[in-house]
Amino acid sequence: MDEITNYKPVHPDQATWPAIYDRILDQSDDGHGSKLLRALSYGEQSSKGYTDEARFPIQGDMWLLLGNMVIDSVQDKGRTWVHSAGFDEAWDE
Q: What distance in Å separates the CA atoms of residue 17 and residue 70, rounded to the nearest whole number?
């Protein structure tokens, strides 16, 4: 959890959901990034009624920090997603 709570967005001035959505639209993505961001956004919305419950460890701004982790990693250099992760060849790079 520390990796999430201590995360510092690469672009702190663009660390809101609307800015993240704009950034993913400008990205050449096969749909994985936008789907993951949508799931995180919905997770934030649907968990609001369960604050301070141990069975929901992701709370508050952790959802937005995860969204920033996703967009920052998608916009980083190199391969974005590991394809065919179950096969040794996928990890050759």
A: 12
At 47-93, the pLDDT tens digits run 888 877 788 899 889 999 999 999 998 887 766 665 666 778 776 76
CA distance 91 to 93: 6
Using alpha carbons, list the distances in angstroms from residue 3 to 41, 62, 69. 19, 10, 10
Q: 57 CB contacts (<8 Å, ≥6 apart)? A: 1
Using CA atoms, how far residue 21 sits from 8, 27, 47, 93, in Å, is 18, 10, 20, 30
